[in-house]
Design goal:
By secondary structure, the protein is α+β, with helices and mostly antiparallel strands. The chain has one domain. The protein has 2 helices and 2 strands. It has a two-stranded antiparallel sheet. A hairpin with a 2-residue loop joins strand 1 and strand 2. The longest helix is centred in the last third of the chain and has 7 residues. The termini are far apart.
């Protein structure tokens, strides 16, 4: 499976936070609701690439 990079929005839902994944990415990787995903975060990149959008 190929890698895909995308911007994601972090939202608060109740006491948890949710990362939204674009529909085209969900379709491309044949993801389904309740699938478990592994997300790798690199702290050195998060601060530098954090997007501030309204």
């Amino acid at each position: 499976m190929s890698k895909r990079k995308f911007d994601a929005k972090l939202r608060k839902v109740g006491n948890s936070y949710v990362v939204t994944i674009p529909k085209d990415t969900v379709d491309r990787f044949n993801l389904k609701e309740s699938d478990y995903l592994t997300i790798e975060l690199d702290p050195s990149e998060i601060g530098e690439k954090k997007n501030v959008q309204k």
